[in-house]
Structures are given as C-alpha cells and as structure tokens.
Design goal:
mainly beta, 12-stranded mixed β-sheet, 178 residues, 36% strand
C-alpha cells in the first residue's frame, strides 16, 4: 500500500507535544499491519521489531487504527533532513489489522545528533502518534528498555517499553474514547 490518505484525523500541533515535532513530516506512506519501515533493503543497524495491539480502555481491539511512526537511523539522522537518506525512510503510517494488531520491522534508532531538544540523557527512541476514530490520539517517544512496561496508556514525553531477546519490542497502545 503506498497511498497517503488515512482515516484518522491528521496530527495537529497538540499531538506533537510529546514527540520530535521538528522531524515530523506529514503525508507519509500508508503501510499494512505487518510492515518494514526501511525504504530500501539492507538498512544498516541492529534489527528492531515492534509488535502489539491497539485497543480501547475496555480492551476492545481497534481495527484500522493508525500508528504514525518515525525515528532516526543507526547514525542518529532522520530522513527528510539529509540529502543522503530517502525522504520516507524509517517513517510510515501502519494500519492495524482486524484484531488491532501490528508488527513493525525497523532498526534500533540512535540518539539524534541535530535535535534542538538534545541533551546528554538522550537515547534512541521511536516517535509515535496513534489515531483511531472516536478516540483521543496518543503521542509519545518510545524508548526500548529491557523489562519495562508492555502497555502505553497515555501521552508522555517518554514511555519505556519492553524490549526482549532478539530486539523485539512488545507494547500495546490503549486509547481513551473522545
């Protein structure tokens, strides 16, 4: 799927409070529930896989929810801001399947070298905004961390999410109704 039309509302500036807004690019490619964010095969870096379910606060899986995701590459660079990197690399809008599931292959991001918000404590993270009709968007920076939580239940500047053996991040996004 390469269309850029989505069903959820577009990210507004309020949604971008908890993510790297300076590296956000609207109109990214729409991908199926099982997707690879690398625009070309052989993306350098340590493989990372993010799996889970988008669900409502009551536990109902949200089919067709959209996970807008972008992150730096293994060198700390974002696509769209370097002429050497394809504009849509390590970015996309992943649409969940009928069971609300997603399975995203990518690479472990490095801390961004050029962020105006960069600090000594910066770590590689994934910027995520989750949209679903009838629900508040959820925006956060996911930090893969061994033994951390599996549930992302609200906007936060950073959310530590479990990363297990083989670089698999397991997390469920829990959305609140409007």
């Amino acid at each position: 799927m390469t269309s850029t039309s989505t069903t959820a509302p577009r990210a507004d500036l309020a949604c971008l409070d908890y993510v790297d807004r300076e590296f956000y690019l609207p109109g990214q490619r729409v991908l199926p529930w099982t997707a690879n964010l690398a625009a070309l095969p052989g993306e350098p870096g340590t493989p990372l896989r993010m799996t889970g379910v988008v669900r409502s606060r009551t536990g109902e899986p949200l089919s067709g929810a959209e996970i807008e995701i972008w992150h730096a590459d293994a060198d700390g660079c974002y696509s769209g801001y370097s002429v050497e990197i394809l504009r849509n690399n390590l970015r996309g809008i992943v649409v969940t399947c009928a069971g609300g599931r997603f399975d995203i292959a990518t690479v472990q991001p490095a801390p961004c070298e050029f962020s105006s918000a960069r600090s000594d404590a910066d770590v590689g993270h994934l910027n995520v905004i989750v949209h679903a009709r009838g629900f508040h968007p959820l925006a956060t920076r996911l930090v893969p961390t061994p033994g951390a939580s599996r549930e992302v239940g609200g906007p936060a500047v950073e959310t530590l999410v479990d990363v297990g053996a083989g670089g698999v991040v397991s997390c469920d996004f829990v959305l609140d109704p409007i």
